[in-house]
Structures are given as C-alpha cells and as structure tokens.
Amino acid sequence: MEKEELQAIASQLKHPSGEKGIEMANMMNETNINMTRHSIQNLNILKENKILELGHGNAGHIEFLFEQGENLNYYGLEMSELMFQEARKINRNFVSQKQAFFSVYDGNMIPFENDFFDKIFTVNTIYFWQKPEELLSEIYRVLKPNGNFCLTFAEESFMKTLPFTQFEFELYSTEKALKLIEKTVFKIVYTESQTEKVKSKTGELVDRAFTTIVLEK
User: Fold this and answer.
1) β-bridge pairing 143-154 and 205-216
2) Average confidence (pLDDT) over 40-56
3) DSSP character for 186?
4) Residue 142 contacts by C-beta under 8 Å, 6 or more apart in sequence?
5) How many domains, in total, are found in the chain?
6) Helices 3-14 and 18-42 sit at what angle, rounded to 10 degrees?
7) What integer is the mean pLDDT of 115-122?
C-alpha cells in the first residue's frame, strides 16, 4: 500500500468519517468484539450500575452489555460524529427506553460530574489519547469510590506489525501502560494478557496479543 492509503486507514481508525468510516466501524466491531466482551466481563457489572465507555465505535456490543445485569444505564462518549450517529441508530431501542445515552466529546474532558459512574471501560483507544495522564485523571474523577476502570488494548508487539500504525498511533506494551498508570492514584486490581486469532485486513488469520488492566478508585 502507498503511504497515503496507510495514513487514510490510520485516520479512519482514529476518527471514522464518511462511507468508509461506516465500513471501518463494522469491521472494527467484528474484529474487536472478543476484546470488548472480555472488558465488559472484567467489570463485574452489578444491577443498576451506571457504565461509561470511551470510544464505542458503532456500539454493536451494547446488547451484550445489557445482558450482564438488571436496570443498567450505559453512557457512550465518542470523538467521531459519525460513530455517535451510527451508535444511536443501531441501539435506537435502548436509546428510546432511556437505557443508553450517547454524546460527542473532545477526547480530553469527560462531561460528567464527579463520582458519577460505577464502571468505566475502553477498548483499543489508548493509542489515540492526546493527553494520557490528564484523561486518566478525568476517568478517576468521574468514577465512584471503589469503582472499576477496565483498559484493554492490543500489545505493541502485535500492533507494530501493522503498517498503518506508524501514523497517528502511540503504541503500548503492558509495561508502558503500567508505567503510565503508576503516575496516577489508581489502584491496579489485576493485569491479564492473552492471544486470540483475528482476521487481518488481507483475510488471513493472525495471532493478536492483547492486554486488559483492571483498575480501582
């Protein structure tokens, strides 16, 4: 692929837009679903929990989240206007029943009051965080005391094999992510790494190593 094509893929992964963005969102939902479900299960959701997700994409996984407990409220924040619209469309039943709430944000400031959420999670967004320490502080701020934050990302060792990650991506190993977290007041509950088989952009199966870090306020 040409440099311009690779840059375009990186840009769409960071901030999907236009028809290509919808295609990219569908593909991301498919390839990330195992990581997303793993994150949701690691939150240990309880009934009546308020749950926040940063960077939900098309949010094709929300139905699975609502199966984890009774009377849940889900809040999704996206930098992409297109993903905000797609998520609302795909989850219109949950939106109309006032169970799911979607908003656009700037990727830095979380537009909620202190101690608002029981659980927060994000999957494959850390590469695009503009101010990682500040965003972690924001996540901490809006979490209730003893609330959990689940951070899931593909390992640097895998990500650097993808040619488009040289553009717009800040790659993370488990060690690098833990060093970042150590600069905050979060408590690390546990860290788990595993490998899964996923389809590459060219269609063959590849091994993707990913890590989930569960934190507590």
Assistant:
1) antiparallel
2) 97
3) P
4) 52, 110, 112, 113, 114, 115, 116, 117, 120
5) 1
6) 50
7) 98
Residue type, 54: L
- pLDDT for 123-174, tens place per residue? 999 999 999 999 999 999 999 999 999 999 999 999 998 878 888 899 999 9
Name 19's Cβ contacts closer than 8 Å, sequence gap at least 6: none
Residue partners of 202: CB distance under 8 A and separation at least 6: none
The per-residue pLDDT for range 160-201, each reduced to its tens digit, is 988 788 888 999 999 999 999 999 999 999 999 999 988 766
Q: Give the closest residue to 172 by CA, choosing from 190, 147, 184, 154.
A: 154
User: In whole angstroms, how far apart are CA 198 and each of 34, 139, 141?
Assistant: 10, 30, 35
CATH number reported for the structural domain that contains residue 99 in this entry? 3.40.50.150
**Cα–Cα distance, 40 to 32 (Å, whole number):** 12
d(CA 97, CA 74): 12
Global confidence as pTM = 0.93
Q: Are 55 and 130 within 8 A, CB to CB?
A: no
pLDDT top residue among 197 and 51: 51
User: Which residue range is the domain that position 41 belongs to?
Assistant: 3-216
* The total number of residues written for the chain in this structure: 217
> Average pLDDT, whole number, for the chain?
92
**Cβ(13)–Cβ(24) below 8 Å:** yes
- How far is Cα 121 from Cα 102, in angstroms, rounded to an integer? 15
Higher pLDDT: 25 or 214? It is 214
Phi, psi of 155 (to 5 degrees): -65, 145
